[in-house]
Amino acid sequence: MRWSGQQIDQEQPDALPGLARLNNLVRTVRTPDFDGVTFYEVLAKSALNHIPKQTAMPFGWTINPMRGCLHRCTYCFARPTHRYLDLDAGDDFDTQIIVKVNVAEVLAKELSKPTWGRHPVALGTNTDPYQRAEGRYRLMPGIISSLAASGTPLSILTKGTLLRRDLPLLAEASRVVPVDLAMSIAIYDDELQQSVEPGTPTAKARLATVTAVREAGLECSVFMMPILPFLTDSKEHLDLALRQAKAAGASSVLYTALHLRPFTKEWFMQWLEREHPELVARYVALYGDKAYAPTGYRKWLAARIRPLIRAHGLDRGRTDASTGGVRSSALGMLRGDDGERSLIAEELPPGMAAHLESQPTLF
Q1: 99 neighbors 46 (Cβ within 8 angstroms)
Q2: Using one digit for the tens of pLDDT, what is the confidence trace for 261-281?
Q3: Which residues are CB-neighbours of 137 under 8 A, at least 6 positions away?
Q4: Can you tell me the distance from the alpha carbon of 231 to that of 6, in angstroms, rounded to the nearest whole number?
Q5: In whole angstroms, what is the distance from residue 196 CA to residue 75 CA?
Q6: Which of 31, 221, 328, 361 has its CA 20 to 30 A from that of 179?
Q7: Parallel, antiparallel, or unpaired: how do β-strands 154-158 and 121-123 relate?
């Protein structure tokens, strides 16, 4: 998709989105409500993304209603994906937002095909489906309804407190399909949080959303991802984070150390040089030319945080190996409580159900 040569239109703040036209790019929108941001409203040809893996398991499906993200997290691993659109991974990722205005309609058609296997679908594994622009575009209610109506399990990982708007719909969906929710809350120092992820709701607001999810009768994991070396990996910060997650009602906690892919690394290091120049040399020594923190650091972090997780009476959650998002509870649903095969097992290729039952550690 190329954006060169496109005319930028000045739209009114109350202009209706999603005008159906033949061209992929419907229009561009700038409004005072989102100062400095341009929205590119496009007509998507597909909604479901299959993540190819070296595995026979028919899982690994995602939906990305938007590309680019108003959360502006300096460490976001999805930043390089903007380069596929001839946009940069820095400011453009934060301010040039691609919105698939017809995503719910396209999804409903894809889910209605006889070939669709009702495999778990993850949202929030790339950019956040509940970033602030969702309040304008309202794409998620249609997505949730379509997935539930088709018998497709879903999971959502978000930093967005706008999730609370859709809790009644999600609770309704959970009566017919597995629904797995997680709130990403990595930084519990308010000043640091506003510096490194300036477009996100506060940790307090996100913790309140965890509580709201639990009060709606749903489970909610907390993703402490990423843990920032020398900034949020102290015992005091980790203990505070876990105590607050427990108090909010978190069902489980997941954590991982910061990883810095190319282009994300450059953007994050610019932030670090500006805000914490004293740590630049330590980060260079720790990461070098690698994307992941070295094994020694990760072992050190595990030895520090795991006893704290146990001390606060929290379970360690697990991510989906294919998507990196919330591990769908549907993946373990090979048989129901009444002994009948579940909808997931029914759609597995011949012999796959028995294979998964014999290897539960795959999940």
Answers
A1: no
A2: 999 999 999 999 999 999 999
A3: 17, 18, 65, 66, 99, 101
A4: 42
A5: 8
A6: 361
A7: parallel
Three-state secondary structure call for residue 255:
strand
- Looking up tokens 């997505």 gives 143
Q: Read off the pLDDT of residues 273-309 as tens digits, 9 standing for 90 and up.
A: 999 999 999 999 999 999 999 999 999 999 999 999 9
pTM for the model stands at: 0.85
User: Token digits for 253?
Assistant: 């906690």
Q: Residue 95: which of 198, 11, 5 has the closest Cα? A: 198
Provide φ and ψ at 27, rounded to 5°: -170, 170
Which tokens in the block code for residue 275? 């805000």
Q: Which helix (H) or strand (E) holds 61?
A: strand 61-63
| Angle at 327 (CA atoms; ends 203, 204), nearest 5 degrees | 10
Q: Which of 305, 53, 33, 256 is nearest to 157 (CA)?
A: 256
* Cα distances (Å, whole numbers) of residue 177 to 85, 98, 329: 35, 29, 10
Cis peptide before 349 (omega within 30 of 0): no
Which amino acid makes up residue 99?
A: V
How many residues appear in the chain?
363
Q: Report the distance separating Cα 96 and Cα 101, nearest Å.
A: 15
**Residue 173 to residue 330: CA distance in whole angstroms:** 14
Q: What is the CA radius of gyration of the chain?
A: 21
For residue 170, CA distances in Å to 53, 151, 174 come to 29, 13, 6
Tokens matching residue 309: 């997780």
Distance CA 330, CA 363 (A): 11
127's tokens? 């950019």
